[in-house]
Amino acid sequence: MSYKVFIDGKDGTTGLKIFERFEHRGDIEIITIDESKRKDPQEKSRLIDQSDFTFLCLPDEAAIESVRLCNNTHTRIIDASTAHRTAPGWAYGFPELGAEFRRKISGSKRVAVPGCYASGANAICHPLVKSGIMGADYPVVIHAVSGFSGAGKKAIAQYDDPNRNAELDSPRLYALTQSHKHLPEIKLISGLEFEPVFNPYICDFFQGMTVTVGLHARLLAKKVTARDVWEMFRAHYDGAKFVQVADFLGADVLAEPFIAANTLAGTNRMQIFVCGNDQRITVTTRFDNLGKGASGAAVQCMNIMMGIDEGEGL
């Protein structure tokens, strides 16, 4: 069976990556829009209605408008923007978080792909809260580093400029007002009562990401050791195709005692590391901000919605 797919915003970073993942698939027919009509609502509406699946790789307001342009009950929309991640009626596109997430994705006509940082944070916080190890009122602090590819075309051009500002050679902390756009979905999906303190860094490498949550054992809802936390994560992600929990302290996948952020670039995989000691525990996710954090997750959701192997093309 062949499916017609329209990528609205195919020239952006995420859109291009989705397009690349379809290059060798015989079950996908890409519908393209004439460049001269790229912003024509009537033409976009026609192509959305013609498609079986439409991917939205757009700014939030444009994504909301594109959803309004769908005039049928047939087209299934997968939105990679922030616009619908906390919206009622939209499935949240992270199937590994639990069977209920996978069921909703499978049966939904509207799926919101998680944000890159939110993917890493929710992969940690959702199981901790669900298991009862971490209370919903825990004062979560998140530290994260990302390659510059996720910052958009303007930032990519700045990093690629041979005459760039010397500050770009260094990791740069941002989201200083604690109002990052991924915070609402982290709070909602993880089941937290309060938004976390979030400290993201954009760094001088192209692709890849790590997200870390630190835990004080004395503040947890259950008395646990670091190994107990690791065992909970192993059980939660048991059998997951793309999420791997490394051996305790990461000894099985780390050649040295460092967690590099770019190791999984170009893949749809995510690794989880539990480190530290029985007083202070760290949980780190490592993945590709353009893969499991964006385009790879979008394609994985589409595969689940199709009822085929979720790893097709990934």
Brief synopsis:
The chain is an alpha/beta fold. It is built from 9 helices and 13 strands. It has helices at 13-21, 41-50, 60-68, 99-107, 116-130, 153-160, 183-190, 226-236, 291-306; strands spanning 3-8, 28-31, 53-56, 76-79, 91-92, 110-112, 141-147, 172-173, 197-203, 209-216, 243-245, 270-276, 280-287.
Strand order of the largest sheet: 8-9-7-10-13-12-11
Strand runs, count: 13
Q: State mean pLDDT (0 to 100 scale).
A: 94
Number of helices: 9
- Main beta sheet: 7 strands, mixed
Q: What share of the residues does DSSP label as strand, in percent?
A: 15-25%
Description of the molecule:
This protein is of the alpha/beta class and 314 residues long. The chain contains 9 helices and 13 strands. The strands form 2 sheets. A 7-stranded mixed sheet has the order 8-9-7-10-13-12-11. Strands 2-1-3-4-6-5 form a 6-stranded parallel sheet, sandwiched between helices. Helix 1 (13-21) packs across helix 9 (291-306) and helix 5 (116-130) packs parallel to helix 7 (183-190). The protein is globular, with a radius of gyration of 20 Å. The relative contact order is 0.15.
